[in-house]
Design brief:
With about 160 residues, the chain is mainly beta. It has one domain: Porin (Beta Barrel). Helices cover about 10% and strands about 65% of the residues. The protein is built from one helix and eight strands; from the N terminus they run αββββββββ. The longest helix is centred in the first third of the chain and has 17 residues. About 25% of the residues are buried. Keywords: Signal.
Length: about 160
């Protein structure tokens, strides 16, 4: 687990170091929401994330791609789960940004992959976002869903 966490952090650091400062945006956020699984109950979820987004002008005006390292915890579980994710999206006029996201989550008793969609709205240097992810758990856990609301700041 530690190797994966360090690998994700190194990949994010390499991306930030290799990209000119004007080409992208570093972001830090806190988030909370609900997670639920097939046949299981609904649990409160909270966490934090650090990410970096950059313009991908080769794909069109307003298109962006990003990476993210996160840590989340369900309120009733003692296990914190780390995640490494990538996202691809488009700015929608002045309304905000729509994006798709895929990720790999590890820590605790099981690992999972995820796929989802989100919407973010910038409010100057701060932003708010809502994100849905389908969690595809490996092992004995059933698949689940997660809906998060995040607030953060960009640099």
């Amino acid at each position: 687990m530690l190797k994966r966490m360090v690998g994700g952090a190194l990949a994010l650091a390499a991306l930030v170091a290799a990209t000119p400062a004007t080409a992208g945006q570093l972001r830090v956020e806190g988030r909370a929401g609900l997670g639920w699984a097939n046949g299981g109950g609904t649990k409160a979820t909270m966490g934090a994330a650090v990410g970096y987004d950059m313009s991908v002008t080769a794909l069109g005006t307003g298109v962006f791609a990003g990476v993210e390292q996160s840590i989340d915890k369900q309120a009733k579980d003692g296990d914190a789960r780390w995640g490494t994710s990538a996202r691809l999206g488009v700015k929608v006029l002045a309304l905000g940004s729509l994006y798709g996201v895929v990720g790999y989550h590890y820590g605790g008793a099981y690992e999972s992959t995820s796929a989802g969609v989100g919407y973010a709205k910038s409010l100057g240097p701060v932003f708010a976002r809502v994100e849905y992810r389908r969690m595809l758990n490996q092992g004995v856990r059933s698949n689940g869903d997660r809906l998060l609301l995040g607030f953060g700041v960009t640099f």
